[in-house]
Amino acid sequence: MLITGATGCGKTWLGCALAQQAARQGFTVLYTRATRLLQELQVAHGDGSFGRRLGALAKLDLLVLADPAIAPIAAQERQDLLELLDDRAGSRSTLITSQLPTSAWHQWLGEPTIADAIMDRLLHGSHTLALKGESLRRTKAPA
Fold first, then answer.
1. CB 3.0-4.6 Å disulfide test: which of 18, 34, 41, 57 passes with 65?
2. Where are the alpha helices (DSSP H) in 48-103?
3. Are 88 and 125 a contacting pair, CB within 8 Å?
4. d(Cα 140, Cα 128) in Å, to the nearest integer?
5. Domains of the chain: residue spans and CATH
6. Crossing angle, helix 50-59 and helix 75-88, to 10 degrees?
7. Which DSSP helix (H) or strand (E) runs through 96?
C-alpha cells in the first residue's frame, strides 16, 4: 500500500493504525523511517550483516516505511531499496507513506533502470491512497 499526502494529513497515523491491526492479528510488523533503515543497511554492508538483515526484513509480514523521499537517495541506498523490495515483492506486504506523490518517485529515485525496477515492484498489485486536506496538527483558534 502506498499512502501519499501533505504534511500532517494523517499518512503516518493511518499507516500505524493498519500496522497495529496487523500486529493484533498475529502478523509480524516493523515500522521504521526509511532514512533510518537505509542507514542501518549501509552499516550492515560494513559489518558483514547485510545479507542476514535483508533476510530478516524479507520475513516480516508487514514492513512500514515512512517518508522514503524526504531526502535525496544515494546510489547504494537505491540499490539496497531495490534488494529489499525485490525480496518482499509478491510474498510480503509493504506499506509506504510519503509526502511526495507516486508520480514523482521515479524522478526522486534518479537512475532510470533501477527506478523502473523499484517502481514496478511498488506499483504492481498495490493500493494507492492519496490523502488530501489540511494538517490534522493545526488547532482551531478559540471562538
1. 34
2. 50-59, 75-88
3. no
4. 30
5. 2-130 (3.40.50.300)
6. 40
7. strand 93-98
CA-wise closest residue to 96 among 39, 11, 28: 11
What's the CA dihedral at 100, 85, 95, 50 to 10 degrees?
-100
pTM of the predicted model as reported, rounded to 2 decimal places: 0.86
Q: pLDDT tens across 25-78, in order?
A: 999 999 999 999 999 999 999 999 999 999 999 999 999 999 988 888 999 999
Q: Dig out the grid coordinates for 126 from the structure.
A: 498495490
Q: Name the one residue in this structure whose C-alpha cell is 506486504.
A: 93
**Angstrom distances, CA of residue 5 to CA of 54, 63, 83, 100, 130:** 29, 19, 26, 7, 6
**Cβ–Cβ < 8 Å for 107, 9:** no
